[in-house]
Specification:
The protein has six helices and twelve strands. It has a six-stranded parallel beta sheet, with helices on both faces.
Length: 215
């Protein structure tokens, strides 16, 4: 028996008790759950995002569009970053004041090479206020997943309020499921059986989120 036949056999056994004429899974599952918890204004939603990001130990900053380049320069300098990797579609004006050496996101870059880079700066696809989650989808201003998992310091810029939603259901409506989605809730962290928290295990040890607005 081939692997294909084994898999199909397991599928048939799993479906053996499904009645004839049953509707597709998408119709069988109820979708009457809450789309968001409570009603909030746009500023309140952004405040909730900032609060939950901070609760996950991300460092949250707010600035206007014209202040972003100087803020990024200060954050990189404070971290002691001499090199920073950026995706190819990141707006060039974001980096005009940055003094660190810019490393382009190249397909040929290896994990050891990226491990030598001090920081990474990206945009995001969407941010979820209720969970304090940033979602990347590999778009040109976010780059490949590798550049946000290997360097130890990640600065992520969220455009406010356009990229902020209240809940996960609202975020899913904006995302393309065929893209490589990375969901980030705070710095990379884990804990052992004694609940000792260790950061930087499978991603950046430090996550800084910039909420970029008009004022």
């Amino acid at each position: 028996m081939s692997s294909r036949e084994r898999i199909l056999g397991r599928v048939r056994r799993a479906l053996a008790d499904v009645p004839d004429g049953a509707g597709p899974y998408e119709e069988a599952v109820a979708r009457d759950y809450l789309r968001e918890h409570g009603r909030r204004s746009v500023p309140e939603t952004v405040d909730l995002l900032a609060e939950n990001l901070a609760d996950y130990r991300a460092l949250v900053h707010r600035c206007a569009d014209g202040q972003l380049s100087e803020l990024l320069a200060r954050l990189l300098s404070a971290h002691g970053s001499r090199t920073v990797v950026v995706p190819p579609g990141l707006p060039a004006q974001w980096l005009t004041a940055v003094e660190a050496s810019v490393v382009q996101d190249l397909a040929a870059s290896t994990a050891p090479e990226l491990d030598e880079v001090d920081s990474v700066v990206t945009a995001c696809a969407v941010a979820v206020a209720e969970t304090g989650t940033i979602v990347l989808d590999g778009s040109p201003d976010q780059g490949r997943r590798r550049i946000t998992l290997v360097p130890d310091h990640h600065i992520c810029v969220v455009r406010v309020p356009d990229q902020v939603v209240s809940s996960v259901p609202e975020a899913l409506e904006r995302l393309d499921p065929v893209r490589p989605l990375t969901w980030i809730s705070g710095p990379s962290a884990t804990s052992d059986i004694e609940l000792d928290r260790v950061e930087g295990v499978h991603g950046p040890r430090t996550l800084e989120v910039v909420l970029l607005g008009d004022s």
